[in-house]
Design a protein that fits this description.
Largest sheet: 7 strands, mixed
Bound molecules: pyridoxal-5'-phosphate
Structural class: alpha/beta
Helix content: 25-40%
Strand order of the largest sheet: 3-9-8-7-6-4-5
Strand content: 5-15%
Number of helices: 14
CATH architecture of the largest domain: 3-Layer(aba) Sandwich
Number of domains: 3
Length: 465
């Protein structure tokens, strides 16, 4: 509604740029992005600065002052890009690097400019079909057959949350049942799992961290022993969480054995494949992750295994009806959106209005095909094997042979305290900044998994390609 004779304040139109204004803004952003990408080889992977904002800058603050795009980009370069971790750098080898492929960024731009409402099939059947196609692809990749469903999330933590909420809902764990229900996991399980349990109201559930073997994989015999002991005590074994690539060392649990145990004791079997799941794109990954197809729920992080920019996770549930039962609500104002027999993302997740995040994954897959991603993952595994050999030759200890692409290692010298020595190595590398590696804490007395946090700790350094 534009009426030049009206008394509407002029500011109402200020957010709507003309074509020539848009061109200027876009070119500035594009030029800046190009300069950034071209300068990557010269940029540090990490800017070590303990007080990056010691000189707090009022430019961060929002008030009624206006800035030019040039001012904004200059500030962005200085205060955002020149501080902390640079995940787009080839030198970022710590934690689990994201990468951030360019075609995905372009897809985000397109998604935002066109702003389709991807939460409801009624509102944007094309966007939802695109997201459904990705869920279908990811589910089949995991070995699911038919009847499965899922949701594209903002990351692995929310994917874990949706999976565990579905498990709780399906198994009817509520009220007094919570106190006698048991979750089985290991000290290698990601902390987002505990967060999820807390958020879904299972903070008081019994959590058993099962003993690990020397490769940081769950000991299936100890698991069975614990389940028997719990049943004898009148407890209710409820949920089994397996790792398909743990964060510390990339450990893959014996998923076939876990699936058998879950079936026998009627446990919900959840597999956290946030980091490792996409290795199903390659043969070695398929061998390692065998059994994942039997999980009741699986999570994946395309912003890890598919190198997308941050903000992409996937939850898959073997039976879509269980996912829908845990998340579907209706409301009077939603009646037009209801279509018999058609699920929308809003029926399968906590979100209603949501980012059209499917496009950032669909577009690169369409442009380059899945083989391109398999090739990259294959290369990462080869690099990890190469690195672990090189590290051994340098006299470092490799904590265990890498299952996937994470290599955890440490330096041990007789005359030095191991923790202090490895802290020094880490500080040196981080201050230098050309590459970034991260540290973790691993129990070197692997037989005491349950007391993991109470024992002597050794700082380990992990590299992930
Ligand atoms: C194994 C595992 N699960 C879950 C998560 C949580 O994923 P996100 O950081 O995407 O929320 C991570 C993150 O590093 C992870 O490594």
């Amino acid at each position: 509604m534009t009426d030049n004779n009206s008394n509407f304040p002029k500011a109402s139109f200020e957010l709507e740029e003309t074509a020539s204004e848009r061109k200027v803004l876009f070119e500035k952003i594009n030029d800046f992005s190009e300069q950034f990408l071209e300068s990557l080889p010269n940029r540090k992977a990490f800017q070590y600065n303990t007080h990056p904002f010691a000189n707090a800058d009022s430019f961060f603050e929002i008030d009624n002052n206006k800035a030019t795009m040039d001012n904004i980009l200059e500030f962005f370069e200085e205060r955002v890009l020149n501080t902390g971790l640079n995940p787009t750098s080839g030198g970022h080898l710590g934690y689990i690097p994201g990468g951030g492929i360019y075609s995905s960024a372009l897809a985000d731009y397109l998604a935002a400019v066109t702003n389709r409402y991807a939460g409801e099939f009624y509102a944007s059947p094309g966007a939802v079909r695109m997201e459904d196609a990705l869920i279908d692809w990811a589910g089949k990749l995991m070995g699911y057959d038919q009847g499965f469903g899922g949701n594209l999330t903002s990351g692995g933590s929310i994917a874990n949350l949706i999976a565990l909420h579905t498990a709780k809902h399906h198994k009817g764990i509520q009220g007094a049942e919570i106190l006698r229900s048991v979750v089985y996991c290991t000290a290698q399980s990601h902390h987002s799992v505990y967060k999820a349990l807390k958020i879904v109201g299972l903070e008081d559930i019994i959590v058993r961290k099962i003993q690990l073997d020397t490769h940081f994989r769950i000991c299936v015999d100890s698991l069975k022993g614990q389940i028997h002991a719990d049943r004898r005590e009148g407890l209710r074994p409820f949920l089994l969480i397996g790792n398909a690539g743990s964060t510390d060392v990339g450990a893959v649990d014996p998923l076939v054995d876990l699936a058998k145990v879950a079936r026998k004791y009627k446990l919900w079997f959840h597999v956290d494949g946030a980091y490792g799941g996409f290795f199903m794109l390659i043969e070695r990954g398929k061998e390692k992750l065998k059994g994942i197809e039997q999980a009741d729920s699986v999570i994946l992080d395309p912003h890890k295994g598919m190198f997308l920019p941050y903000g992409s996770g996937i939850v898959l549930i073997k039976d879509i009806k269980q996912l829908a039962a845990a998340h579907t609500y209706t409301a009077n104002y939603m009646r037009d959106a209801h279509i018999d027999g058609q699920y929308s993302p809003s029926n399968l997740s906590p979100e209603l209005s949501k980012h059209f995040r499917g496009l950032r994954m669909w577009l690169p897959l369409k442009l380059y095909g899945e083989q391109a991603f398999s090739d990259y993952l294959n290369e990462k595994l080869q690099l990890a094997t190469y690195l672990s050999h090189q590290i051994l030759e340098l006299g470092y200890q490799v904590v265990c042979d890498p299952d996937l692409s994470i290599v955890a290692f440490r330096l041990e010298l007789d005359e030095y305290d191991s923790d202090e020595l490895n802290k020094k190595v880490l500080d040196y590398i981080q201050k230098d900044g050309r590459i970034f590696i991260s540290s973790t804490v691993l129990d070197n007395k692997l037989t005491h998994g349950l007391q993991y946090f109470l024992l002597e700790h050794i700082k380990n350094i992990s590299i992930c390609f």
